[in-house]
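Write out this protein's structure.
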Amino acid sequence: MVVIAIISILALMAIPSLQQKFVRDQIAEASAWAAVAKTPVAAYWTANHALAPDNASVGLPLADKVVSNLVASLQVEGGAIHMRFGNLANGALRGKTLSFGPAVVDDAPVVPLAWVCGYAAAPANMTLHGSNRTDIARELLPQSCR
């Protein structure tokens, strides 16, 4: 009986960490989907030395038409990309948003933009543009987005 109780306690302690790992894995998988917008937004920056105002400006359909198994919408706004989770995403993510902000060297538009995920800071000597709508708890995000 004691052995069963100990095993049960250990299992209960492991469940939250497994849940967080599962959520992080889904965030990583969905983040790859953001490349659908990252590539044309970066091309817009290179061609226009300005940040893309919306989906249409980079040839993407309306936000709710850019979907996958985990992503319910993908919106470009002021250069930033806002990815809302839904569909088959874990309950901790469903309805939540992860933003990817463009970081640029303002006085050197020839320098390619860098992408900043979630709550992360912009690289040194770069300015982060666009709004950050990330509303996922920091502990659930991959280290690169915290």
